[in-house]
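Entry type: protein chain
Record version: 2
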Amino acid sequence: MATSLKEITTIPLSFSVGFDKSTVSKTVRDVTDALVAKAEHFIRWPVSYDVRTTIKTGFYAQVRFPNVIGCIDGTHMFM
């Protein structure tokens, strides 16, 4: 997740959406803090090895992205 968030805050993304890098960085930080605050209510990590393996295998079969045991879906809207 940290790697993904680092990529989100890069300059090209900032320019592509028309905001300064500092604005994008603050927004990503705020959203991340909100997700962490609610994590125990909404995010469930697979606890057993078998479940993690099943999820990784299924995710790779669908989108060819290795070693994924979870993801967060988002909605994009014009602001």
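Comment: The chain has four helices and no strands.
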